[in-house]
Amino acid sequence: MLELDCISAMDLMGTKLYSTEGIEQSSSGQSFICVSVLLICSFKLTFTDINLSTSSRNAVARISPVSSFKSMLNNFPSPFALLHERMLLLDVTQLLVSLLTLSTATGFPIFLPTSGPILHYPFDAFYCCSGLYLLSNKINNFQKAERPVLQGQRIKTRKRDEREKNDPTGFRDAVIAGLEKAEDLDAIFKYLDIAGNKLDYRRYGEVLFDILIAGGLLVPGGSISQDGEKPFTNACIFKASSDMEAMRNHEQIFVKLMRRYKYLEKMFEEEMKKVLVFIKGFQPEERIKLARMTALWIGNGSVPPTVLAVLNNEHLIKDGIALEFLIEVFITLKQEKGISALITALKKGQLENRLMEFFPLNKRTEEYLKTIFTDNGLDELVKLHKAQASQEAKRELQQALLDDLNDERPGKDIVNDIKEKSANYNIPEHEVIGLLWTTLMSLAEWNKKEELIAEQALKHLRLYTNLFQAFTTTDRSEIALILKVQEYCYENMNFMKVFQKIILLFYKTEVISEDSILKWYKDAHSPKGKMHFLQQMKKFIEWLQNAEEESESEEEN
């Protein structure tokens, strides 16, 4: 039986009533519930009114019972009484839910009063009427009845919850068994096409490519797993002829298979990244076949050229294996698709400026790179490498110039530093002057008002005329500077009207000569904004020409 600490009687009028946690279990182990309202199970009790106010910090609600309330209370059967220990604060939602639930379960109506206070409680919690419990037979009414279950019922696991055992060896055996029955490549593709409906290509796609490339299941290091009775098949690339006709025929199997099962494309890319790391474990003739197939796959888009980056691995580079493999790929791709396709692939794979990284450390010289590529008919890659090396050198030179300017080094020191670095990088003067112009113009924060740009630009450039003079010692350098100014003014609209003033400044400070200006005006100008800048320079050119004629006349006299 439930044991409760309680009081036998209390005057309810104007008294605060509390809920409790003081409930213990009976010896039968069944639970009891302490109800959060004053519930009359033996009588029907009517509450007359309710008045709730939440406009102040302390919201108020109080019960005004009917006249027979006290007499009814005196007739409560034991143990219906008010609990006074282990007080528990309940919120309004819990109280209302308890009221509705218990009213429905017991069949006793609960009438909400319409006027008068019933309870007093603080804003964040309230004290509620409490004290009654339901015996176990009442609790059972709240519990949901269990549904009948047939004897011998078999509980099925959802298909999505089933976990299939990973069995790449079993998949390999099934594929090899089918490939062994095929007589030619057409039969191989037909088998693979049909088998995709039965075998789980989505799960074992990389295993499938292992078999088609190497003839079996590849394990770390590049060897073939020997588990099982038939771990290897000859229907693979490594056992095919190395001539390009045979390679193209094998290429079509992969193309058709991935066209049929599109999800294999991503798996094939991951497969190639894995296989290329294993090439040290393959035989030399196997590496040649794989390199040729890789070139074909890159050419038809089956794999991106970025997969070649995995060859930049120390254990492949130090023995020259990575370089040999790359050269075979380059030769095949050039023969099959042309040099433009090869250069495009290198750029897409971001390898055009990393070719030297694949050379062994003791052979990373410009001379050796030129020799190895030229001997294999890849002269275009030598030019590409030089161009990329030049771009990298220019970036380094420009950064060095920025560092010197930010450190506020003397102009003479900056000139010496740039000349030394440009000589080491083999950057000619006419290219250095272009870098100098671009770098110096990037230092300023230009005014957005067009009428103020000219004064700001001239003031800025006067600070660096000594640098411009140091790198315009030839006519070609002077013309290159004028073209840089023209290009800059054309691309920055606020400078369109400043071109002539900048050229005049360079003329007065002897950065550029009269002959270079006249040559630019005559035939060395750029088509960018040609008519606008020629018209802007017209009066200045006429003045130069007249000055030249007067000078010639004076010399004759």
Automatic annotation (TrEMBL):
Pfam families: HEAT_5MP1_2, W2. InterPro entries: ARM-type_fold (IPR016024), eIF5-mimic_regulator (IPR051245), HEAT_5MP1_2 (IPR057397), W2_5MP1/2 (IPR043510), W2_domain (IPR003307). GO terms for cellular component: cytoplasm; membrane. Residues 383-554 form the W2 domain. CDD domains: W2_eIF5C_like. GO terms for biological process: regulation of translation. Belongs to the BZW family. This is CSON007373 protein.
